Amino acid sequence: MSKSDIFNNDFGYYGMRERFERRGPLEWRPKSIKSLTNDAESNRSSESSNRIKKLRESIQTERDKQEQAMLEINKEISTSGLLDKDKLRAFDQALARLANRTETIELSAQSLASNLKSVSILADSISSQVRELDVAKSRVVECLLRVNDLRDLRTCSENVVPAIANEDFEEACQYIHRFHTLEGIVAKMGTRFDLPGSGQSMKSSYETLQNAAADLKIIIETNFDAAVASGDTASMERFFKLFPLLNDHANGLQKFGAYLCRKIEKSCKDFFKIMESGGTDDTRRNVLYSDTMTMVLEEIAREVMEYQPLIDSYYGPDKLLYLMEIIQAECDKQSTLVLDAFIKNRQFEQRTKTVREFLRGNQISEKLDPIALDVLLSEVTLIHTRAELYWRFLKRRLGDAPARPLSESGDPPKSPTFASDDFDDDDELTEEERKELQEKQKRARTERTKKLDTVLNRSKLGMRMQEILGNYVMMEQYYMLESVSKALEMEDSEENSLTTSILDDVFFIVRKCIRRSITSSSVDCVCAMINNGMSLLETNYLDRLNAAIRAGYPSTGWTAEAYQHAQTAYNVLQHGKSVAEAGPEMQKKVFLAALNNIRASIQSIVTLKEGLMQDFEVHFKQINTTDKSKLENSLYQFDELSRKFEQMASIAVNKLSTAAFRPRLKAAAETYIDFSHELTEEQLNDFESVDPFIENFIGLLDEQIHKFEDALLPENYEELLESVSVETAHQMERVIYKCGFNHLGGIQLDKEYRQLASYLTNIAGWKVREKCSKLSQIVNILSSDSIEEAVNFFKQLETSSSGILTINELKKILYLRVDFSKDKIKSLKL
Questions:
Q1: In terms of domain of life, where is this protein from (predicted)?
Q2: Do 695 and 773 lie in a common domain?
Q3: Would 240 be classed as within a structural domain?
Q4: What is the rounded CA–CA span in Å between residue 590 and residue 583?
Q5: Which of 605, 625, 656 is the last residue of a domain?
Q6: Which of 296, 299, 320, 325 is nearest to 309 (CA)?
Q7: In this predicted model, what pLDDT tens digit does every residue of 679-706 receive, in sequence order?
Q8: Within 10 Å of residue 611's Cβ, how many Cβ atoms?
């Protein structure tokens, strides 16, 4: 490549001509080296000429390198272009084939789009024709249906009168039923399809069937009443089935309900005669009225079970509720007679009034005997249980039935065979009609729910039972209160028993009352009795035990013993008690028994709760979520009461430790001050063979503890050991601060502490070491070799969770070391 191949553009860049113009970047070069030189010579002094010369040489060198590089690039490009010619030719051919194929695909796509458009037009044409055919078909079908309806109307009008004359009432009612389904259609059609001169018209047929329906209604009512009067059950059921075909459901149910009410009343009269005579079994006189209530309710349930299939088949499942509204009035009447007799003969109202006055704190002439109330309360729960079973029976029978209005409310009635399909034929309804039907169903369900609530909860039987059950809760509370008071008065303890009789007696009474309320099958009643039981345990029972704890455990100091002897003498003289009854030994026995009763009561509460939970699973399997939540909330009271008893037990144990151990431990610990703790090597060796303090101290402590091992429950004894261990550590800390130690004395103190800690761990377990950690830290500091070692130990305590000592306590402990510098201790800063 020659220099002519390189050109200079207007911007001072050099490039290659022809084929090199499009390859590689442009390169900047000065337009004129000569002009640059002239400018430099004019602007610079002669001293810079050497530098310009060197620059020119450098520029020329770089230019030569660029020219050489351009030559090599040109050579490579030319060689590569020759080798790639065949590749370019093959690429062009492939590109041409691809273009041809793309053109073919485009033509095919256009053809396909044209075909799809034709098919779409054809489909739209066919669809419109199909719609026209559907309209025509629906009209033809509708026309055929109307023709069939007209034929049915004619058939019904021609045959209904002969059927009545032949007393074929079932067939006649079928004709009337069919006529009722056509009644709306006939009214719309009018007389447009009447044939002149045929002698028949829709108007005449319509009038004939209307007259026949009125006649049939009178005939069926008359025959039904006659069958009931004669006791002909088969005929009665025969005519009862025909009322729905005449669209007279309510009238049929009303007559049939009246029949059942008379039947129930007749049976109940026999039951009342048995009740008034005192029953048939003398062993069941205590539950005479609950047995009578059982017979009344079972009789009603038997009638419902017997005729429910008949009503469901011919009237529809929803009509049973309408019938029960009629029967429930008779049920209320008969059950009220039983309850009135119960209240009168059992003096229930009078006893209730007496109990109410007593619980209000008013003066009463004579208190009721709880034993006499026991039988009465059991009978009340049995009566309510029978009523609850009756309500559950009705819920099962009525609760699952669909909500539908009576057929005579304006809708065309259904035949008996399809009585349950009142709301199922809505496939061809419009959206507006479907919404209207849904609203109608919703209103029917609301109305049914109200009726069901009225039958089950707002009947006279339900209200009377709620009133009686409220009085029962009050009387049960009185029974529980009086029984517990008598049990507390008769408190006694058996030989070798750690607890007294009130523990078993009180919890037996509470458990009995709550479980008796469970047999009533009323969740609210059970919750009320649980509340009463927990309140009684928390007040009367716990207060009785707490009184013995507040009286305290007699102290063992000589001053306390002198005061106790004086108090004993006063009680003997003033109250006439014996020395044994008024002395400290009896007070000790009462205190320990109360402590054991409190601890044992915790387990009794847990046992009572678990037993009630099992009873709930048996008696309340089918309760709703709300009632289940009520029972769970009531059971939470047991946990709270158990925590209160635990707190009271801990307080009592601490009182016992303070009274029985603190005076003796304090006196024994004071002897530690009498010994010197600034030991020599010889004295340390003597202490190792025979320790004059710790062995006697541990012996005295063990003797005191052993006295309570057989007098306390295991749980109380273990807690007492922990409390005594804490008290022991506290007394040792107190006397240590009154002593002075050298290094050997600190070592001896460490040995004594280890011996004491080993003893406490053996009797009370490893958890005692944590409670005595402060004493351990004091001993470690006093046995340190130097102040620095003690300070390092203190710093380790600060970084751990077991750190108890403060910096001031550290200094106070270090001052006990007579061999440590006081000034150095005083100057400590952490």
A1: Eukaryota
A2: yes
A3: no
A4: 11
A5: 656
A6: 320
A7: 999 888 888 888 889 999 999 999 999 9
A8: 13
> Is 0.85 surpassed by the pTM of this model?
no
In this structure, the answer to whether residues 389 and 266 fall within a common structural domain is yes
- Count CA atoms closer than 13 A to 563's CA, side-chain side: 7
Tell me if 22 is assigned to some domain: yes
- Domain check: are 712 and 769 in the same one? yes
The tokens describing 288, both together, are 């005479």
Same domain assignment for residues 683 and 809: yes
All residues at 6 or more sequence positions from 302 whose CB lies less than 8 Å from its CB, including other chains: none
What tokens appear for 174 in the block? 């079928």
Q: Annotate 552-610 with DSSP letters as a single string.
A: -PPP-SHHHHHHHHHHHHHHHHHH---HHHHSHHHHHHHHHHHHHHHHHHHHHHHHHHH
Does residue 176 fall inside a structural domain?
A: yes
Find the helix packing angle between 370-399 and 431-456, rounded to 10°: 160
How many structural domains comprise the chain? 5
Banded model confidence at residue 266, pLDDT cuts 50, 70, 90: very high
The domain boundary, picked from 621, 636, 656, lies at 656
**Contact 528/630 with Cβ under 8 angstroms?**
no
In whole angstroms, give the CA distance from residue 535 to residue 558.
42
637 φ, ψ (degrees, to nearest 5): -65, -30
Return the structure tokens found at 19: 């084929």
Task: Give the distance, in angstroms, between the CA of residue 426 and the centroid of all CA atoms in the same chain.
Answer: 41
Burial 631-658 (b: 16+ CB within 10 A, else e): beebbebbeebbeebbebbbebbebbbe
Give 817's DSSP letter. B
Residues 83-109 as b or e (16 or more Cβ within 10 Å = b): eeeeeeeeeeeeeeeeeeeeeeeeeee
Q: Which domain holds residue 130?
A: 116-213
Task: Give the residue carrying structure tokens 């939470």.
Answer: 636
Considering the domain architecture, whether residues 694 and 818 belong to the same structural domain is answered as yes
Interval 88-136: pLDDT, tens: 777 778 778 888 888 888 888 888 888 888 888 888 888 888 888 888 8
Q: Is 467 left (phi over 0), alpha (psi -120 to 50) or beta?
A: alpha
pLDDT single digits (tens) 295-326:
999 999 999 999 999 998 888 888 888 898 89
Angle between helix 807-814 and 787-799 (nearest 10): 150
* 645 in the same domain as 665: no
For residues 70 and 7, state if they share a domain. Answer: yes
Q: Is 652 found in the same domain as 521?
A: yes
> What proportion of the chain, given as a percentage, has pLDDT over 90?
40
Give DSSP secondary structure letters for 384-418.
HHHHHHHHHHHHHHHHTS-----GGGSSPPPPGGG
In 3D space, the residue among 787, 788, 794, 791 whose CA is nearest the CA of residue 819 turns out to be 787
Question: What single letter denotes the amino acid at residue 302?
Answer: R
Please tell me the distance from the alpha carbon of residue 394 to that of residue 358, in angstroms, as a whole number: 39
Let me know if residue 275 belongs to a domain: yes
- Structure tokens given for 783: 């046995």
Q: Distance (Å, rounded) from C-alpha 145 to C-alpha 136?
A: 14
Q: Give residue 511's Cα distance to chain centre.
A: 26
User: For the stretch 420-448, what's the b/e string if a residue is b when 16 or more beta carbons lie within 10 angstroms of its beta carbon?
Assistant: bebbeeeeeeeeeeeeeeeebbeebeeeb
CA–chain centroid gap for 698, Å, is 54
CATH number (domain holding residue 696): 1.20.58.1970
Residue entry with tokens 């520029």: 59
With tokens 């024709």, the residue in question is: 129
